[in-house]
Amino acid sequence: MIEKRVQSANGPVYYWTNDFKSQQDFAIVFCHGLTADHTLFTKQIEHLSTEYKLITWDIPLHGKSRPYKNFSFANVNRELLTILEQENLNRIVVVGQSAGGYIAQSFIEENGNKVIGFIGVGTTPFGKYYYKKSELFWLKHYSTIARLYPYRFYCRAGAKAITETKEARASMYKSLINLGKKDMLKATSAVYEEFLKINNEVHFTCPVLITFGENDRTGYVKQYCQAWAAKTGFRLEIIPNASHNANYDNYEEFNNLLNSFIHQVI
Description:
single chain; 18% strand; AB_hydrolase_sf
């Protein structure tokens, strides 16, 4: 993967892409979850790099895309749009894990003409319809609570809570350590603040696949995903032997689902 970047008035945004020779204007774009970075999709890159044009990126306030000011979903959408323009891409399948699914949904709402498919991994829908008030309260005050913990303890506990395998856990722990406590708090505050502003669901005009790990213990993710699929009729797949970072925990199962989905939409 080749490291590149775009620069806006708000800061640098780094992304990685493969040297895939194709005349097509299509790519798969991977959006990592809160406090992770582009390495969350290492197993997908290894599996698909010879088949498709791929884009992974450090979402603003994460990884190398720091410092970044004026964080908003709208500004993040503009950064991603700039990346697509720089790479001459007009059609994408976007894969969003956890809060990366929020970024993906926001982008689809604003730029749905460029998106031909969406895969959610342990993410939940826009729209207050689905959520318990207690869960929304917890999101609003998450950074206040997280601030109380010694950071290495937080990193160990956090990585363990959202993974099943040692490899996935080590990868998430490294991302958290590299982010640091100050920027972890900044990122969680900024992302959840944006999410809490959203009242309406996204109008999808592309195929949607919702997935989550069978052992995902993150909040009410499983219940919200099931309610989302039931309300919309979107396809739902439960990934066995996996937790919140299901695409890393059981990457073979997830990669099979991803391959199947891609073949259906392109």
